[in-house]
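U., I forgot to send this yesterday:
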Amino acid sequence: MALSDLTSYPPPSRRLRLGMVGGGRGALVGHWHWIGARISNRWDLVAGALSADPEVAKASGRDWLLAEDRIYTDFNEMARAEAARSDGIEAVAICTPNVSHRAIAESFMKHGIDIICDKPMTMTPTDSNALIALQAQTGLVFAVTHPYTYHPMARQARQMVARGDVGTIRQCLVEYAQDWATGPEDPNSKPQSWRRDPAKIGRASATGDIGTHCLHMIEFVTGLRVNKLRADFHICGAPKNMEDTAFLSLRFENGAPGSMWLSQAAPGNACGLTFRIFGDKGALYWDQENPEVLRFTPLNQPEQRLIRGHGAGVVPEVERMLRLPRGHGEALSDAWGNLYTEIAIAVEARRLGKNIPPGFLALADVQEGARGVRFIHAAADSHEAGGIWTELS
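Result:
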């Protein structure tokens, strides 16, 4: 299958070898990576340093049926050992708290291993710039995991905006609402505790955790950059030392206004990432909790409900992302599968010297990862200055 064929992904020549740092027992995000890799059918997970706790790392490796000599307790040791093997890993997934991303990525990049990194990519813009420079020096693939844009109907929305279906964009709203931080936090939950620790997560909590997904989604779908924002951070759930809620005003590069609402203390919401895009010819609405449906309302015409599946208005760029016919629901696991498919195509192309046509893949790269970090710092700057308008470069 040629890469010029928009309706299909090219078949793999073989499965690539994947390693993972973090993501062991009790870490949900590691299971998303593992599920995505399995669904894509393009990866074999063969090595891991799955926890900072040596005993948990060993137990997690056995849970995932890794060979004993490829269960590591130190990521630097893993990078050295895997690079020295003829069957060593070709990419590593970094599924750890933000504070360790730069060090882990640098260790593996210096050994020629491609990178799959959770967001936010780093703690600071300085750290991001260091990774940008190292990626430019090595030429390695550096993918940042924004899986929500790999839902087919989010990709459908992007293509519809690009071909002019909504016309000139006049305003946008994006939100991400959860409720897990409404009540007192569980003192035994490591994922909860590190997400409220500035030493591990940086200057913002909910804004970095879910706000980066919102920024990437709205810019991905609209094709417009946010160049100014103002932010107010709040604690709307049980008392805690960092924000669980944020309200942001946005200004897009074409002058259109926007808003972003983020909350992890909104009872009745589980994973409510939604966007509303309004142009002078129509509007689009999508909700991640109901990902199969994209609502399109042309101006002065009846609303259309586009449903994930083959044909019936689905564009060629979305056809290649589909696994099941309509009526058989796909979900976030399938979005992760699409993400890992595109990462595999990028890694294989780099390693075999293949060219990928511009725009064929939609991976968030090291530059997009750095933008997410700048967004967090711009929002924190704005909040700390009383909610003033702040540039986002």
